[in-house]
Design brief:
Radius of gyration: 31 Å
Largest sheet: 8 strands, mixed
Strand content: 25-35%
Structural class: alpha+beta
RNA sequence: GCUGUUAUGGCUCAGUCGGUAGAGCGUCACCUUGGUAAGGUGGAGGUCACGGGUUCGAUUCCCGUUAACAGCUCCA
């Protein structure tokens, strides 16, 4: 057989050969580094015997998939260590993940000290250097083995596997685990690992099941890489919006106000106000009509929209259904309110599309463990909008929404940081949705076509649709790599009927419109959180709550500094004066100006000419300028929302 | 909601095996340096998250509540 290797070269063998032996044949170094093989694009175990012509790629910890194998093996070593130290622990599952690996156990929670001793035991196991053996068992034998070892979770897993599945096991030094692999040849190859944390996790991810104890860890091919990663973990904490946003006094939380109810401090509020004014103006330019609708309504409204049936638990209900004649609820969305704006007058096809926009404050009663900084809150304000359209207008209006969203993203400088997700219904679980399968298929296909015409790359996600229609979700990751929906554009073919919304067509017949639910810049709190992390607090000038700081270099220049401040303020520039600058020299103060884009040093020799010395975050020392020139420059920058390139550490 | 951790001056944290608290940084005042990433001296600032209990006495021990953090689950 002929084996074609990654570098294009070929190896020829007369008999069947295991991948690991081929690796040794190439070089002993490669064999030592090898963690898995990739045969014709499929990741397989190094023990796999090759018997046909194929393309072979030997994976090492330098390959993403090879690293996953290393981490997976590390998780097995961890499980062995746990079983040695705590024989009563029951093992569940232990895969590799993006950042490392985890393993779930039925056991009391582990403390940091426990993790340290498990780490120690793991090092011992690695030093012992057991070989890892793979073997296969029949279903019956497999169940028997795991019953003998008193591992009920493994038995359950085997019972749920398909009848014809090959049941493979891996054994190292007496520790046996049901596992599809692939795994390293020996535990000796694990060079750099660290146990990160421990927490609870439901068996099989179901909250009705028992909560197991999960240990997270990570592993790398080299010690340096591990250390680099651990340093990186510390570094990203510095730009975590939940920490930085509080430090910069953008927001705060208060015990007695409650969870998920952050206070936007003057600086944070100023930033959100800047965004809001900008986006409201832009929407109006694009033909949106602004509405202002109530923050609450009688329950009757939500009964019509079906929220009372589907989402009552998520709403703040005012009053007691049993006792009170009228029960109200704070609004969790704006949809039905804007529908009644539409319904106030009979509409003609000539009135469509009807684009309604509202800067809308919403209330959602999230579970207590879900709140996080500004990204998951109980009250938030969103650039909400609904477009009522005829079937012929769907594509153009949908494109308009995508265009608006992209305009927002590019202006904020984050267009390259998002991914697009088409959130579809789950055909297996149609009870969650309004309408029937045929209509859903039709609308989902329509979405795919529109997205095709726009030409954006997206991935499809089943079961993520809204109950009234599919969504185009624009996703972004936070500093920890966790994904959140920043912007969503949804196509709704059902609610118009529930609310009996109509328009009269050319022939004088009443027709059902379609509705597009959309947001332009998303929810302001979450968007702010995103921007904090994106820019590590070094915002573009137009967004900065403090754009210029004026620094007199000695007391004689205080009056002049104040007059400069006044002129800047008259121009609408957000600025402050720091009269303490002269005390120790402005160079020093500069280190504390790192979040302010411009520093004006006044009191230089040139003050008689209205000349200031400018330092900028972007350009360093810009030297002397007349005040008028500086004001013109910065106003231009703010107006065009220019985002200059800066170094963000 | 679940599992766990945490809660001490503006920030980072120490501490009291129960006798009402400390450090570094920051901040403030003054001195020196007439303005290029300075130094010195002195000061302010905490009912140790909140509510109960045990005790002669609780910041410290116990119970509860609230909030923050990590993860799970959820997210119209």
């Amino acid at each position: 057989m002929n084996i074609r290797l990654k570098d294009g070269s070929c190896k020829e063998y007369s008999e069947d050969k295991a991948i690991i032996d081929i690796a040794y044949d190439i070089s002993e170094g490669l064999a030592r580094m090898a963690t898995a093989g990739e045969v014709d694009g499929k990741v397989v175990d190094l023990r796999t015997i090759l018997s046909h012509d194929c393309e072979l790629n030997i994976l090492t910890a330098n390959d993403e998939k090879g690293l996953a194998a290393l981490r997976h093996t590390t998780s097995h070593v961890m499980a062995e260590a746990v079983k040695r130290l705590y024989p009563e622990a029951k093992v569940a599952i232990g895969p590799s993940i993006d950042t490392g690996f985890y393993y779930d156990f039925e056991h009391e929670p582990f403390s940091r000290e426990d993790l340290d001793s498990i780490e120690k035991e793991m090092k011992k196991i690695i030093k012992e250097g057991a070989k890892i053996e793979r073997f296969e068992l029949s279903r019956q034998e497999a169940i028997q083995l795991m019953q003998d070892k008193n591992e009920p979770y493994k038995v359950e897993l085997i019972q749920d596997l398909p009848e014809d599945e090959v049941l493979s096991f891996y054994e190292q030094g007496g520790f046996v685990d049901l596992c599809a692999g692939p795994h390293l040849m020996s535990v000796k190859s694990i060079k750099a690992f660290k146990l990160i944390s421990s927490s609870g996790a439901y068996w099989r991810g179901n909250e009705n099941n028992k909560m197991l104890t999960r240990i997270y860890g990570t592993a790398f091919g080299k010690k340096d890489e591990l250390n680099e990663y651990l340093v990186h973990l510390e570094e990203i904490k510095k730009r975590d919006h939940n920490k930085l946003g509080r430090e910069m006094e953008l927001f705060a939380t208060v015990d007695v106000i409650g969870q998920g109810l952050p206070l936007l401090m003057p600086k944070g509020a100023m930033m959100i106000q800047t965004l809001q004014r900008w986006i409201e103006d832009e929407e109006e330019r694009r033909g949106y009509m602004r509405t202002k609708t109530p923050l609450m309504a009688k329950k009757d409204l939500y009964v019509i929209s079906d929220h009372w049936e589907h989402y009552k638990e998520g709403m703040f209900v005012l009053g007691d259904e049993e006792k009170d004649e009228e029960v109200f609820a704070l609004r969790p969305m704006t949809c039905p309110f804007q529908y009644y704006v539409y319904k106030q007058k009979q509409k003609s096809y000539r009135d469509l599309p009807c684009r309604y926009g509202e800067t809308s404050t919403l209330f959602r009663n999230e579970d207590s463990g879900e709140m996080h900084g500004l990204t998951r809150v109980r009250q938030f304000t969103i650039s909400e909008g609904h477009l009522v359209v005829t079937p012929e207008q769907i594509e153009e209006e949908f494109k308009g929404c995508v265009d608006l969203a992209k305009y927002c993203l590019s202006t904020l400088g984050v267009e390259a940081d998002v991914t697009y997700q088409l959130s579809l219904s789950d055909p297996e679980n149609m009870g969650k949705y309004l309408g029937n399968r045929e209509t859903w298929n039709e609308v989902e296909q329509m979405m795919r076509e529109i997205l095709g015409h726009i030409g954006i790359n997206y991935k499809e996600e089943t079961g993520e649709a809204a109950f009234y229609g599919p969504k185009l979700d624009i996703q972004a990751k936070n500093v920890y790599g966790k994904e959140d929906t920043m912007i969503t554009i949804q196509l709704d073919m059902f609610l118009a009927e529930r609310f009996d919304m109509t328009y009269v067509d050319k022939n004088g017949e009443k027709k059902r419109p379609y509705i597009i639910h959309r947001t332009s810049i998303g929810c302001y709190e979450r968007t702010l959180a995103w921007l904090i992390e994106k820019y590590a607090g070094l915002f573009p000038t137009w967004l900065c709550p403090e754009q210029v700081r004026v620094l007199p270099i000695s007391e004689k220049y205080h009056d002049y500094a104040q007059s400069v401040l006044k002129q800047l303020k008259e121009e609408g520039i957000k600025c402050t004066v720091d009269e303490r600058g002269e005390k120790i020299g402005y160079k020093i103060r500069e280190s504390r100006l790192d979040k302010v884009p411009y520093m004006l040093v006044v009191g230089a020799k040139e003050e008689e000419e209205n000349v200031v010395s400018v330092r900028s975050r972007y350009l360093g020392d810009e030297g002397a300028k007349t005040l008028a020139t500086f004001i013109a420059d910065i106003n231009q920058e703010i107006k065009t929302k220019e985002i200059r390139k800066i170094e963000v550490e």
